[in-house]
Amino acid sequence: MAYASFGSELDLSSLLEACVLAPRRLALPRIERSLPLRLAVHWVDDLASLIGGPWGIREPAADAPIPVLSDIDCIIVPGVAFDRAGNRLGYGKGFYDRLLHARGGMLKVIGLALDCQLVEAVPHGERDERIDMLITPQGIWRFE
Question: Domain tally for the chain?
Fold first, then answer.
């Protein structure tokens, strides 16, 4: 599972395309519009089928097939900043923290970031979910 990047986020379009073309399945999130707002996960077979969601983020249509979380090997998550302890600072809505909490620790969580997004410390609380690995152009960090 990955995400469709937007704004100043690291561009994942080549990675998403490679996943769709390879003998792998790609899952992407979409924001469920019913309250409470949450991320729903859908299989994506064609990137051209993505539609504009809230905030201009491309996402699968609501009728796209829904995977079982156990069918997903890893989750690549966005973030504003990451630290060397595996903490992630998101955009403040808690979408990914709730999704990651629901995984029950069974999937690997990977952050992909620019070097400038790796900082000394990220503010975090008990509801914030950590990542298992961070990959930047300068290196790979694994967290336990």
Answer: 1
For residue 104, name the pLDDT band (cuts at 50, 70, 90).
low
Peptide bond into 36 cis (omega under 30): yes
Neighbours of 139 (CB within 10 A): 9
Please tell me whether residue 117 adopts helix, strand or coil conformation: helix
CB atoms < 10 A from the CB of 78, how many? 24
**Strands 133-136 vs 108-112: parallel, antiparallel or unpaired:** parallel
- CATH number, domain at 84? 3.40.50.10420
Residue 2 lies in a domain: no
Helix, strand, coil percentages for the chain (3-state, nearest 5): 20, 30, 50
Give residue-wise pLDDT tens across range 49-62: 999 987 789 999 99
